[in-house]
Every structure is written in structure tokens, then in C-alpha cells.
Amino acid sequence: MSEVVLAYSGGLDTSVCIPLLKERYGFDKIVTVLVDVGQPRSDIERGNRRAKQLADEHYVIDAREEFVRDYIFPLIKANGSYEGYVLGTAIARPLIAMKTALIAKEKGIKNLAHGCTGRGNDQLRFEAIFRATDCRVIAPMRELDLAREWEIDYAREHGIEVAVTRDKPWSIDENIWSRSIEGGKLEDPYFEPPEEIYGWTQKPDASKSAQIVEIGFSQGVPVSLDGAQMSGIELIEKLNLIGGEHGVGRTDMVEDRVLGLKARENYEHPAATILLAAHKDLEHLVLSRSELRFKVMVDEAWSELAYMGLVEDPLYSDLNAFLDQSQKRVNGSVKMKLYCGNAIPVGRQSPDALYAQDMVSFDSQTLSQKDAEGFAKYHGFQARLLKIKGLKST
Ligand code: ARG
């Protein structure tokens, strides 16, 4: 019997993959794996319903805790962002792929499938993991070069209820960290997104009064909200709701995909925006200037690998080791003001602050100002030498 394990979201593409894997590829048994990374309950339920109808065996794996601990926390330590956006879809893909591959291994199945198209990044992220196994990799969407219209008809023929319509043709990807909206008229980068694409955030409203939230960090990881300790999952869920009410965390951008295609992307990510801004702010209170300067490069390299889904590249764990070490003093809390689409740090404190109020204060005499005089004499020395010697700088 020929069997295949499919990474399954319950959405249109992966649902269409099930009959395709039977009819076009001749598999007799389709095993679906739905990995819970914090997408809405209703998506998971829809996936379970469709899998029951279409697949031969179905698994749901709750990977939320692992996702937060092993992917989101490192991302926060790295101030992870790609071209200015917080990274959401990218960091969930490797874990989804790994969980899917694990089921295949446990069941001794040698075929792995995903529902990604040949245009995006997700195919690369899945296959970076899948191809490290001894399985054959199948990508029906890419291999059969299917268009959305065709898929919709094919789905209907196979009794798959389709929520996508001509008026609401959005392709949505969600996990606990971010929500991405693509497709339809949004593919015109000049077209302003209608309010209806947003599911997590309210329209920023200047008449709504500001709200302050205080985020506590321990070793670079957020651990409390307004003084109350809580799990990462709870903290992120709460901040998504609170931030969403203030319209915090919307991104509308043109993004460079790994393949080189530019794509118009819309995202929502209130908790991510708040936590990353707070974390970065706290780092500036506790890390040395040289640590901060160097860490920007590490953050950039980490983000690039994360975007590409290359979490099995040895550099990724090398960078994580540096990040863990660098975060040992990133303890304390940051007050964030949420107002009209913004999340602004307005106060920070830390037991590990490199800040010395007694030395920096306008009112202090702890340091002798005169000591700076020698330093100041040498500052810009070579530029002055040029003038003294009558040399031209161009
Ligand atoms: N462009 C983003 C990324 O590559 C988001 C992709 C969203 N994926 C999706 N299947 N809707 O990270």
C-alpha cells in the first residue's frame, strides 16, 4: 500500500491536496497532520472536520508551548524582523514540518507532502526539513501548477465547502504570533487594504485613550504582565487582545521573498510589536554599547536564517548560543504606552541596568567634568590635523 503524510492546515490548498494525492499520485492512504501553533480554534475544528471527511487518518498536535519556547522566545532575544516585519509564518513552518516528518517516521511512511505553491517561501521552509529525511517529497500545488479558480471548482466537486469567494479571496495564515493576509486585490501594491482584512486589530482611533502595560523580562524572555507572572502563551494571547484594541501591530509592506519575487504583504501582530519594542528598549538599558553594536549583526543574521526556515543550519544554533549568553542581564520591566496604533516605551527599570543616574545627572558632582577635557581634545583629532597641515579632504 502506498501511503503519504500531508502537513495539513485545513485550508483550501491542503484540503485540495488530499483528493489530488489519491487521484493524481495514486496514493491509497493519506495521513494528515494538523499542528496547532495557536491558530484560531475554528480553523483547527474546520481542519478536523475536513480531514474526517477526506483523509484516512488524522493527527492534531498541540505544539503551542514548544512554538513559544523554542521559536518565539529566541526570536524575541534576537529582535527578529525581516525587512521591518516581525516574522510570523516563517518561524512556525519548521516546527510544523518537523512534527509532520515525525509522524511519518513513527508510522514508517516514506512520503511527505505539503500544500505550498511554487511562488512563495513556505515550500522552501518545509523542504529544508523534509529533505533532511529519507522521504520522497511531494508538492502537488507546485507540481501540478494549479490556479486558485481551478482549485475552488475541484474542491466543490469533492464536497469541500469553500469559504473563499470572489469578494473575499484572502489567503490567511495565522499562528499565535502573527496573522498574514494575502491575495485578491491586495496583490496590487497601490490598493489600500480594506478594514475587513483585519481580524486581530481595530482601526487605530485617536479619540480612544491611551493604555499602559508593563512587561517584565527575565533573561530576555517576557514573563509577566503588569506584575502578574504568566506563561508565554497567556502573555502573548493577552497582549494580542489589548494591543489589538488600540490598533497596534499592523504592517503593510512590499517584501522580498527568498526566490527574489517582491510580494505585497499585510500582517497583524499586536503582541509581537509590543514585546519586541519593549525588549529592544530594555536591552538599551542593560547591554554595553559594544554588545549592542555587535548584536545588531547577530540579530540580522538570525532573522535572515529564520525567514528562510534554515533552523537546521549550524549557524542558527551558534547564533542562539550567543543570544542566550547576551540575554543573561536582560532582566527588568518596561512600561509600554498603547495609543492609536502605536506601542511606545515610556519607562524602563532593571536590577542589571548599566545606567548610573548619579553620574549622568545634570545635578550631580560624582564625576569631575574636568576629566573629560583630555578626551575632548583628542576627539576628531585627525580631521583637525588635516586643517592644521592645510590638506584638503577631497
Ligand atoms: N510572505 C510571508 C512569509 O513568507 C507570509 C506568507 C504567508 N503564507 C501564506 N501561506 N499565507 O513569511
Structural description of this entry:
The chain has 14 helices and 14 strands. With 394 residues, the protein is of the alpha/beta class. A five-stranded parallel beta sheet has the order 3-2-1-4-5, with helices on both faces. Strands 10-9-8-13-14 form a five-stranded antiparallel beta sheet. It has a four-stranded antiparallel beta sheet with strand order 6-7-12-11, with no helix packed on it. The model has no long low-confidence stretch (mean pLDDT 96). Bound molecules: arginine. Arginine binds at residues 89-90, 120-122, 171, 173, 180, 182, 255, 263, 265.
Question: How would you describe this structure in keywords?
Answer:
394 residues; alpha/beta; Rossmann fold; Argininosuccinate synthetase, chain A, domain 2; 3 domains; 5-stranded parallel β-sheet; 5-stranded antiparallel β-sheet; 14 helices; elongated; binds arginine
Entry summary:
The chain is α/β, with parallel strands linked by helices and 394 residues long.
Task: Break the fold down into its secondary structure elements and pairings.
Elements: E1 3-7, H1 12-23, E2 29-36, H2 41-54, E3 57-62, H3 64-77, H4 89-107, E4 111-113, H5 122-130, E5 136-138, H6 140-143, H7 148-157, E6 171-174, E7 179-182, E8 211-218, E9 221-225, E10 228-229, H8 232-245, E11 250-256, E12 262-268, H9 270-286, H10 289-308, H11 314-326, E13 332-339, E14 342-349, H12 357-360, H13 372-378, H14 381-388
Parallel strand pairs: 1-2, 1-4, 2-3, 4-5
Antiparallel strand pairs: 6-7, 7-12, 8-9, 8-13, 9-10, 11-12, 13-14
The chain binds arginine.
The site of arginine has 12 residues, from helix 4, strand 6, strand 7 and strand 12.
